[in-house]
Amino acid sequence: MDKVIVKTARSADFQKKFQPPYNPEDEYRPLKFSHYEPPIPGYAIARNGVVTGPVKKGLNWCAANAKMGEKSRPQLVLRGKHVLLHRAVGLSFFEELKWHFSDEFMREFNNAGPILTRMCIDEMFQIDHIDGNPWNPHISNLRFISPRDNIAAAHDQVLSGVAKKYATGNHANPVFEE
After folding, report:
1. CATH number of the domain bearing residue 91
2. Does residue 4 lie within any of the structural domains?
3. What whole-number distance in Å separates Cα of residue 144 and Cα of residue 32?
4. Is residue 28, in this structure, part of any structural domain at all?
5. Is residue 116 part of a domain?
6. Distance (Å, rounded) from C-alpha 95 to C-alpha 90?
């Protein structure tokens, strides 16, 4: 039996491949990692996920779990807090985030009041990547979604990836022992 070697991707490789360059002309807003806590002082974020710090230059993304490779999610560590980039973009540009819920649900949710609304956003909803690429944190690619719908979307992506792999013949032949 062959030995399986797991390559750990370097964050620098992900930065080159996925991270957009810093552009001082972009709109930057105070960076939020929670809807009911204040922004992190001195840090700002653009719609495409570029984060600036106190020195006003782009900060580097890193993989939340480098062993997962491109399936991992980009994050930053700011003042000891691990900040997932897609959540920071979604919460900082909250009013531009798409909502994946029925009109009836949205009417009830909007009538709940501001304090309950802010608490529900962090506790009840997840931010989903519409295209399935966790390294694309642009606000146009993000939406609020229920945990159940998020799992279903992830399941569909996994199944479509397996189907592609087998359709192209790019898969290992499993060996079954009786």
Report:
1. 3.90.75.20
2. no
3. 16
4. yes
5. yes
6. 9
User: How many residues are given for the chain?
Assistant: 178
C-alpha distances out from residue 8 to 14, 138, 169, Å: 12, 25, 25
Structure tokens at 50: 């570029």
Owning domain of residue 18: 11-163
pTM of the complete model: 0.71
Q: What is the DSSP letter of 101?
A: S
Count up the domains in the chain and report the number: 1
Q: From CA 150, how far away is CA 95, in angstroms rounded?
A: 20
Residue 178 lies in a domain: no
Task: For residue 17, report the phi and psi dihedrals to the nearest 5 degrees.
Answer: -80, -40
Backbone phi, then psi, for 52, in 5-degree steps?
A: -115, 150
Q: Encode the chain (178 residues) as per-residue pLDDT tens digits.
A: 333 333 344 556 767 778 888 888 999 999 988 777 888 888 999 999 998 888 777 777 877 887 777 778 888 888 777 888 998 998 888 888 877 777 777 777 777 766 666 666 667 788 888 888 888 999 999 988 888 888 887 777 665 654 455 555 554 444 333 3
Tell me the C-alpha to C-alpha distance, in Å, between residue 61 and each of 34, 69, 163.
19, 14, 31
